[in-house]
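HUMAN:
Could you generate one sequence with tokenized structure?
ASSISTANT:
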Amino acid sequence: MMTPLHPLAAVAAGTMLGLAALTAPNTTPTRGLQAVPACTTECLGGHATMPMVGDSVPEDQLHRVSAPGRYGLSQAPDGDSYAVVGGHLVRIDADDGRILSVLRPAPRILD
């Protein structure tokens, strides 16, 4: 014959499990995630100001985005590409590097 548990035993067990869940370390998987350095003067291209639509940016002053998804973007339209110029995410003409639109600040290179 089994002895019944005390009514408060279930409360105590639930409290312990709840506390364990609240104090558990962050279990977000980090495999594949890499620390990304902040944008340096090189990725800023020496620019201290926001890039302007119509500016032509030399190749050595921009970082072409190779993984648009990391910036929350889909593939660029045909003939365009995305880049980081002066700490800003921009859409450029793939052929001549002319800025077609300034999207938003991008203080870090993500790809």
